[in-house]
Amino acid sequence: MKTSHRRGLRRVVVTTAAIATASALLAACGGSDTSDGGTQPAASPDAVKAALEKGGTLTYWSWTPSAEAQVKAFEKEYPNVKVNYVNAGTGNDHYTKLQNAIKAGSGAPDVAQIEYQALPQFALPGSLVDLRQYGFDSFESAYTPSTWTAVHAGEGLYGLPQDSGPMALFYNKEVFDKYALTVPKTWDEYVAAGKKLHAADPKKFITNDTGDAGFATSMIWQAGGKPFRTDGKNVTINLADDAGAKKWTGVWDQLVTGGLVAGIPGWSDEWFKALGDGTIATLAVGAWMPGVLESSVKPGAGKWRVAPLPTYDGQPATAENGGGTQSVLKQSANPALAAGFVQWLNHGNGVKPFLASGGFPSTTADLKDPTFVDKPSAYFGGQQINQVLTGAAGNVVKDWSYLPFQLYANSIFGDTVGKQYQAKSELEPGLKAWQDALVGYGNQQGFQTNG
């Protein structure tokens, strides 16, 4: 994905959307809405086909780089349908406007882009259409397990996976060669490489990190952590004692306290410059990163390569980092037509323009297609990077879940864990402070939250 998309993903801040949505979750979790497996409205797969044939007008909110091309291709295939595409902003702006329209009872689009981490906050209060009623649950085998899980909330299905972000290690081969660094297979080797690099040149760092909630949760996920659990009204948060969290901090503490990570905020102008001039030697990040590097880090062309994400024991394991779907809003006057558009986007010909824009797929067929898997990348020195990235897609650790108020959780990460980065101190006290703040917030919103 291009920078405009991912900047919105990685820099979500506290919003009225997050607060208002979380406040509505309690009633939804305790009611009989389809998100809890209740009776679904009368509909069928035939309703989607009929709606596409009849046509109509839809409004679609998205910020993704492929959106305009997808809309044009869809309208060409279905000339009876007019799609009004609106870029309402990314991250904070998008979700605030969407929640305001939901709260007002009018003005919401028929279809909206929603990131996996944000989906529960809109699905659980009943703002989205459960797509099981249109037979979309039969598409499960077409997607990777991690992304299929991500488009569910409770028992409900609220989208079809668009992209995925299995994590890999992006590294600057020029820097590695100059300082005789070996591409690390374990996190212990990664720390050792960081120490060696910084000792040889104090102006160079193995990576950057100033405290990013999305990165932290992905790293805890990769370590096998399960810090968030939701069962109806009951939410359990265990960041302080979770085994995966302890595995991750056991590694990352060494980098933070040793001054081995650059204090350069991600997505800043300084960050892009540092990726191009070798100041930052690696990134542990999602499979969408190639598009960002190619479009925004021109000086890095030919220097970067991709390797599997280091692990704790050398056995393949990774996590998702980013990704999203499109959901049908309950306000839609034509939900069957909107569902048909969602189906086309991610289970039809809409996948092609998405891939052409640099998107990384969640569809198993595309992840196995030799024309995608074996395609060499000039930016990455001719490396067939998708061989590594598609391999990562099959090694995502199972059984991860986000909080039903994850956007809010991410927004206060800097006020808790972020302070430890600033002080170059161990991260555990920050995780405990984050946990305490989230437990308090959850209870204020009406959840029975324990930590």
Characterize this entry briefly.
The protein has 451 residues and is an alpha/beta fold.
- Major beta-sheet overview: 5 strands, mixed
| CATH 4th-level superfamily of the largest domain | Periplasmic binding protein-like II
The tally of structural domains comes to 2
Strand content: 5-15%
CATH fold name of the largest domain? D-Maltodextrin-Binding Protein, domain 2
Alpha carbon gyration radius: 22 Å
Instruction: Give the CATH level 1 class of the largest domain.
Output: Alpha Beta
Tertiary shape: globular
**Residues in helices, as a percent range:** 40-55%
Low-confidence stretches: 1-16, 30-41
Question: Termini separation (Å)?
Answer: 35 Å
Largest sheet, spatial ordering of strands:
2-1-3-14-6
**Mean pLDDT across all amino acids:** 92
| Multimeric status of the protein | single chain
Number of helices: 21
Structural class call reads alpha/beta
Q: What is the second-level CATH architecture of the largest domain?
A: 3-Layer(aba) Sandwich
Find the count of extended strands (DSSP E, 2+ residues). Answer: 15
Describe the 3D structure:
The structure is a single chain. By secondary structure, the chain is an alpha/beta fold. The radius of gyration is 22 Å and the shape is globular. The chain has a 5-stranded mixed β-sheet, sandwiched between helices. Strands 12-7-13 form a 3-stranded antiparallel β-sheet. The chain has helices at residues 3-10, 16-30, 45-54, 67-77, 92-104, 119-123, 145-150, 173-178, 187-200, 213-222, 243-257, 269-277, 289-296, 335-347, 351-356, 364-368, 370-373, 385-393, 406-411, 413-423, 428-444; strands at residues 56-61, 81-86, 111-115, 152-153, 156-157, 160-161, 168-172, 207-208, 228-231, 234-237, 261-262, 282-285, 304-308, 324-328, 448-450. 54% of the residues are buried. The chain has 21 helices and 15 strands. It has 2 domains: 3-164 and 323-367, D-Maltodextrin-Binding Protein, domain 2 (3-Layer(aba) Sandwich); 168-320 and 398-450, D-Maltodextrin-Binding Protein, domain 2 (3-Layer(aba) Sandwich), CATH 3.40.190.
